[in-house]
């Protein structure tokens, strides 16, 4: 269940790499634009022309305040756990099927 569209961040890099360098690259908010079953779509437009090289969810605010996380399991009612990873796309799209997120620049 989607409670709000906050919680996701993407790492924007000027170099085409597969990892985020916290000293050179920048983490920016990536609002949730849609959800479908176990898939979450996020907006990565804040990266502009930079490459999306990583994504994280509730990385800074875990645990979130009671009932303030963006995503909750429909059956258990528990909040989705924090996540951080990378799976850069080659066409402006980024997908990570094992965690159920995708992003498209709009």
What is the number of E strands? 8
* Largest pleated sheet: 4 strands, antiparallel
Mean pLDDT: 77
Strand arrangement in the largest pleated sheet? 2-1-5-6
Structural class per helix/strand content?
Answer: mainly beta
Radius of gyration: 13 Å
Protein model, in words:
This protein is mainly β and 106 residues long. 0% of the residues lie in helices and 36% in strands. The chain has no helices and eight strands. It has strands spanning 8-13, 26-29, 32-36, 39-43, 51-57, 83-85, 93-96, 101-104. The strands form two sheets. A four-stranded antiparallel beta sheet has the order 2-1-5-6, with no helix packed on it. Residues 88-102 have low confidence and may be disordered.
Short description:
This protein is mainly beta and about 110 residues long. It has strands at about 10-15, 25-30, 30-35, 40-45, 50-55, 85, 95, 100-105. The chain is elongated, with a radius of gyration of 13 Å.
SSE layout and pairings?
Layout: E1 8-13, E2 26-29, E3 32-36, E4 39-43, E5 51-57, E6 83-85, E7 93-96, E8 101-104
Parallel strand pairs: 4-8
Antiparallel strand pairs: 1-2, 1-5, 3-4, 5-6, 7-8
What keywords describe this structure?
106 residues, mainly beta, four-stranded antiparallel β-sheet, four-stranded mixed β-sheet, 8 strands, 0% helix, 36% strand, elongated
